[in-house]
């Protein structure tokens, strides 16, 4: 009998193969052809097993790759400023806007944001912004899975920051066609390293007829949709004035409120909105840190109780999904004023792994460490003062861990982060290019006032 030969064998780890599984001490992972072939105790490895490469990671916790279902990598350009402006940055003259970003700047900033996310444990990001035909492959080249889409809208964004809300059919046709063309190029590939969700920007930046166009395109192509929902009082007020209803009611009326929708934020909701979102089985992209920074909180406990599917995301200005696990846990407990069995670290890890995979339509492919699943996983170094002792490794990770504790990231069986460094790019060069692009954008934005 021939001994099993793996492409990659990871040994000596503490393994949490899925959110609700008990940790396995002194575990091993065998990976072949980009998929997990062995998952279990090292003592149970097939006799005489060999590997092209072995990684011995004693003192490390390994969990499934983290799925960041809603982010804007380019918006790292306003990091450290936008957080203290409330909801104003997109509407404030002098602050860089998406329509100002040049192609080379978009690529540089997107790679910076994607690198940050990957180094902090994201193995898949669902991104949207501008120049996506260039940024999507540039980000994927770093090694992580990248779903991305241009902003789909029919509002003239150049006027929004000055209070002009003009919807133009030509803009809508252009942005939707760009997204459909992107999907033809990058969606449904055998290695699943790239993909597209139709990114209808928001109910207030898409006219009602145009939202129907997006819904029809999604139904025709089988693509999923992501959008911002009830993220601001401005949005809610505009939809009330324009359509006489709430944003979730509008999305329901045009055929978008369903279990193929990733709805980011979901903050300013009525009781009826929560019931609608829950009944539709919407995947709520919860952004706990970003929302709390702006003084808001999404009613995640009530949404989950109503039937919504919780996922997690960083949105913009930072990309640390490990930190997001903690914020989501704490924000949920603040809502009920209690520590409860149904809202524990494992529920947050589920939202960030299997829950995120389901939102991306990949629940049978990623989100768990199991034989046959695509080999995406993250190793965190527990040999650090803030992670010792780790009586409960997952609880320790969620309560005191940070993205900078990630030492190794594996995507499709490839080690794309090793000892905290990317394996496919020059990290210092990515940082330099991103910083230069942001500086140029700020200079132009200030000059435009």
UniProtKB/TrEMBL annotation:
InterPro entries reported in the protein's UniProt record: Amidohydro-rel, Metal-dep_hydrolase_composite, Metal_Hydrolase, MTA/SAH_deaminase
Molecular-function annotations in GO: 5'-methylthioadenosine deaminase activity; S-adenosylhomocysteine deaminase activity
Keywords annotated in UniProt: Hydrolase
EC number(s) on file: 3.5.4.28, 3.5.4.31
Pfam family, one: Amidohydro_1
Keyword Hydrolase applies: yes
Gene3D superfamilies: Metal-dependent hydrolases, Urease, subunit C, domain 1
Domain Amidohydrolase-related: 61-416
PANTHER family with a match to the protein in the record: AMIDOHYDROLASE-RELATED DOMAIN-CONTAINING PROTEIN, AMINOHYDROLASE SSNA-RELATED
Similarity remark: Belongs to the metallo-dependent hydrolases superfamily. ATZ/TRZ family.
Protein name: 5-methylthioadenosine/S-adenosylhomocysteine deaminase
């Amino acid at each position: 009998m021939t001994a099993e030969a793996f492409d990659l064998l990871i040994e000596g780890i503490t393994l949490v193969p899925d959110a609700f599984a008990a940790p396995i001490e002194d575990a091993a992972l065998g990976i072949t052809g980009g998929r997990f072939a062995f998952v279990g105790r090292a003592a149970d490895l097939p006799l005489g097993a060999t590997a092209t490469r072995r990684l011995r990671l004693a003192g490390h916790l390994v969990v499934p790759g983290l799925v960041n279902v809603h982010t804007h990598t380019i918006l790292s350009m306003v990091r450290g400023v936008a957080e203290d402006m409330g909801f104003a940055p997109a509407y404030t003259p002098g602050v860089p806007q998406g329509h100002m970003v040049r192609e080379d700047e978009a690529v540089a900033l997107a790679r910076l944001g994607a690198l940050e996310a990957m180094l902090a444990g994201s193995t898949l990001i669902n991104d949207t912004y501008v120049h996506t035909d260039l940024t999507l492959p540039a980000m994927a080249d770093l090694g992580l899975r990248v779903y991305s889409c241009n902003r789909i809208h029919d509002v003239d964004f150049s006027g929004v920051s000055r209070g002009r809300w003009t919807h133009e059919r030509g803009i809508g046709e252009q942005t939707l066609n760009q997204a459909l063309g992107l999907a033809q190029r990058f969606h449904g590939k055998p290695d699943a390293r790239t993909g597209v969700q139709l990114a209808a920007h928001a109910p207030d930046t898409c006219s009602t007829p145009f939202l129907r166009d997006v819904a029809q395109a999604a139904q025709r192509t089988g693509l999923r949709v992501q959008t911002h929902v009830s993220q601001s009082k401005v949005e809610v007020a505009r939809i009330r004035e324009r359509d006489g209803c709430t944003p979730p009611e509008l999305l329901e009326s045009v055929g978008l409120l369903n279990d193929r929708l990733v709805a980011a934020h979901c903050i300013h909701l009525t009781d009826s909105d929560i019931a609608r979102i829950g009944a539709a089985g919407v995947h709520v992209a919860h952004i706990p840190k970003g929302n709390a920074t702006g003084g808001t909180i999404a009613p995640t406990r009530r949404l989950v109780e109503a039937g919504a599917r919780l996922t997690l995301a960083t949105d913009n200005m930072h990309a640390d999904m490990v930190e997001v696990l903690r914020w989501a846990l704490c924000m949920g407990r603040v809502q009920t004023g209690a520590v409860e069995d149904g809202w524990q670290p494992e529920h947050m890890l589920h939202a960030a792994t299997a829950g995120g995979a389901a939102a991306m339509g990949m629940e049978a492919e990623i989100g768990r460490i199991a034989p046959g699943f695509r080999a995406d996983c993250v190793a965190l170094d527990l040999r650090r003062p803030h992670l010792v002792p780790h009586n409960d490794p997952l609880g320790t990770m969620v309560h005191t861990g940070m993205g900078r504790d990630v030492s190794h990231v594996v995507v499709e069986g490839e080690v794309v982060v090793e000892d905290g460094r990317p394996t496919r790019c020059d990290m210092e060069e990515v940082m330099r290019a991103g910083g230069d692009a942001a500086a140029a954008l700020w200079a132009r934005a200030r000059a435009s006032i």
